[in-house]
């Protein structure tokens, strides 16, 4: 069983209405402020650098390097539409420890951008391939297996990640994740907010439709504090 899937905690909270969202944008650290909107300016300022989207983090050629390494293995798998705890729909996945030189150099950049120096990292990199019709439902990754930071590269498609506060669903952020961008979730954004990838028919950012295609995420995580001791 893939480690992430054994780690995902499914949350069955009240649905969040998308029809009357009041979108505010605000500078969030080194990320592109235009790619993050939320329910209030105070929330955006409070989370600050805990939520980042870095556009153009990899080039088209670097994306191609990942695809050349990943596609042969992914093509041997079928997309699954009935995840064991109903958290993911239309996906296939794998983990990878060994990479070619080009991809390893990119992952070194990801780790340098997302994690504190010396932070113990979860060894395998998680690869999650969503079909065009696939989506990820709201969840918080288990604190038993994953630490304070999640960082992911988005390949092949733009998408929207939605964060909703677990105990106050009126507080939310939408992140526009352009193709070849890097997103980073830290601390409160990782522990106290569910995150999800919207399905194509719901993929609207700040009033604008964002078409969803097949999307591959290359995801790095650090270890929880107790595992690092």
From the structure above, extract its key features.
single chain; 229 residues; alpha+beta; two-stranded antiparallel sheet; 6 helices; 14 strands; disordered N terminus
What report would you give on this structure?
The protein has 229 residues and is of the alpha+beta class. Helices cover 22% and strands 34% of the residues. The protein is built from 6 helices and 14 strands. It has helices at 3-7, 41-47, 60-74, 101-114, 187-191, 225-228; strands spanning 8-10, 24-25, 36-38, 51-54, 88-96, 125-141, 149-155, 159-165, 172-177, 182-186, 193-197, 204-205, 208-209, 215-221. The strands form 2 sheets. Strands 1, 2, 3, 4, 5, 6, 7, 8, 9, 10, 11 and 14 form a 12-stranded antiparallel beta sheet that branches. Strands 12-13 form a two-stranded antiparallel ribbon. A hairpin with a 2-residue loop joins strand 12 (204-205) and strand 13 (208-209). The longest helix has 15 residues, at 60-74. It is globular and about 45 Å long. The chain starts with a helix and ends with a helix. Residues 1-20 and 25-30 have low confidence and may be disordered.
């Amino acid at each position: 069983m893939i480690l992430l899937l054994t780690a995902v905690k499914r949350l069955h909270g009240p649905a969040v209405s998308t029809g009357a969202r009041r979108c505010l944008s605000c500078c969030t650290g080194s990320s592109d402020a235009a790619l993050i909107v939320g329910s209030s300016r105070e929330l955006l300022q409070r989370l600050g650098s805990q939520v980042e989207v870095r556009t153009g983090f990899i080039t088209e050629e670097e994306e191609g390097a990942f695809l050349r390494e990943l596609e042969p293995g992914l093509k041997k798998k079928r997309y699954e539409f009935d995840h064991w705890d109903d958290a993911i729909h239309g996906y296939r996945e794998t983990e990878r420890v060994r990479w070619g030189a080009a991809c390893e150099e990119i992952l070194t950049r990801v780790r340098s951008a997302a994690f504190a120096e010396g932070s113990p990292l979860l060894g395998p990199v998680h690869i999650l391939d969503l079909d065009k019709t696939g989506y990820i439902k709201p969840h918080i990754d288990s604190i038993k297996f994953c630490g304070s930071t999640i960082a992911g590269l988005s390949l092949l498609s733009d998408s929207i990640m939605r964060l909703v506060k677990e105990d106050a669903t009126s507080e939310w952020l939408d992140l526009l994740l352009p193709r070849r961008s890097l997103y980073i979730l830290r601390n409160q954004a990782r522990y106290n907010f569910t995150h999800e990838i919207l399905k194509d028919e719901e993929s609207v950012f700040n009033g604008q439709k964002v078409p969803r295609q097949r999307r591959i995420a290359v995801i790095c995580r650090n270890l929880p504090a107790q595992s690092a001791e």
